[in-house]
Amino acid sequence: MKYMISSIALSLIFTAGIAFAKQPAPVRVEQGLLQGTLEDGVTVYKGVPYAAPPVGNLRWRAPRPPAHWKGVRKADKFAANPVQVMFPTYGPWTSAYMPKGEVSENCLYLNIWTAAKSPGERRPVLVYIPGGAFTGGSGDVPVYNGKNLAKKGLVVVTINYRVGVFGFLALPSLTKESKHHSSGNYGLLDQLAALKWVHKNISAFGGDPSRVTIMGQSAGALSIMYLTASPLAKGLFVRAIAESPTDFRNGLEESLKTGEQYGESFEKAMGVSSLAELRAMPASELLDSTNNSYHFLPVLDGWFLPKKVDEIFRLGEQNDVPTIAGWVANEWSFMGNYGKIPAVEFREQVRRQAGMLADEILKLYPASTSAEAAVSQKKFERDIFLVSMYIWAKERERTGKTNLYMYLFRHPQPGATEERYETFHSSELPYVFDNLNESDRPWKAEDRNLERVMSGYWVNFITTGNPNGKGLPEWPAFKETPGRIMELGDKMAPRPVMSREKLSVLKRVLEDSMR
After folding, report:
1. Residue 470, in any domain of the structure
2. Considering its fold, how many domains does the chain have in total?
3. CA–CA distance from 62 to each of 22, 107, 162, 190, 236 (Å)?
4. Is 29 part of any domain?
5. Quick one: how many helices (H) and strands (E) in the chain?
6. Is the Cα dihedral 192, 222, 440, 155 positive or negative?
7. What is the pLDDT of residues 332-370, one digit of tens each?
8. What's the angle, vertex CA 54, arms to CA 36 and CA 65, rounded to 5?
9. Whose CA is closest to 33, among 45, 41, 43, 22?
10. What's the domain range around 206?
11. What is the CATH number for 218?
12. Is residue 393 situated within a structural domain?
């Protein structure tokens, strides 16, 4: 019996020793010691504070530094998501695309994945800024899991930032209390604060602060454009990836003044007479009041964005870094009327948008029948995006000295969404993050190969500033093949943006709209 007890005790001690050995050692950041967890050979740090909670009197203020802590802080759970309406699924977006957990104003946290064994490895760093129309989004989304990219040599960071009314409310009273005479871009300032935290602390996780790439999709991609334009972000990143920004022309039309007027109408609707009362309102009440009524967006605040983004690029004042930028083939397929606009209505829409050029466009995008109009609508919307990208690229080429790599992604995900949504908005992300296994879909061999190629391009670019590498189809920089972009998907090769005839006419339409 004594021998049995000793054996059990020794077994427990040995097992505990193994468990302890698997526990990664704490790392020291500016605020204190952090304890991560080991997941399949990658150390993960979840819910790391990069700024003070923006609650109470800090609601609608620029982010403040996070507090220091004593002892070892566990970083084993994702923090709450920014305050938003949560959906389990939505349109083509399965649960793998949706934020998990609770929501809270106390949301300014980031997450880190690293396979580095020591700080001295100085691996390239990816900071991912999630999309969500500036009303939602989170760093806690299965598709953004950084584990597989970390295994390929990156240190991956995902962040939360304030969205909706909490991230983008502008008011004269807020502008007045700001020493920069600015209000409205709190979500963008959060992103900036996260980048500053990464710059100061990422070496503790084996990352190289001199090799940070910022990447985002949708509203996250617009954020990449704004950060690239902002003088406040100078020196915080050396490469950028923008996937499906809503408009490459970057024409932020919302001035601080008009943003303030919009905020005042909201303040009036809330029935309050002071900023203090507005700050005292429950977050849930503010969220409920904005649903379907108010959509708060970034503004030209004179501080984070001193000028229009397209003007900054035109003057060559942007943070000039190598960039990947592009679209997917069916960006608007999640809209209910996608490919379903009646022929008569489509023709009228073209005439409203194109004016005197409408007849030329309708020859190129015919709509004599409903079936013909359905095909033309999809092609017209895709080509408008591509021309917008082309105009921006030519302007950037005039003032920028770094390489630009442009793409069109064309590969529908297999499964229930394929026929209805085709290559939908954000459908490239599982391939880029090497995360097909996060989604329950009938993946095929061609999907696995595309995952290998796409993640390979992105890892190479984040590492060196050039997506090309061994075993990958050659992807030329835009300046090397003017008028051509890379098609990624079922075909993998450079292609013209579109026919010269279509490009000429659509350029005139877009340039007229920008005047």
Report:
1. no
2. 1
3. 39, 14, 11, 7, 18
4. yes
5. 17, 14
6. negative
7. 888 878 878 889 998 998 998 888 888 999 999 998 898
8. 60
9. 45
10. 24-321
11. 3.40.50.1820
12. no
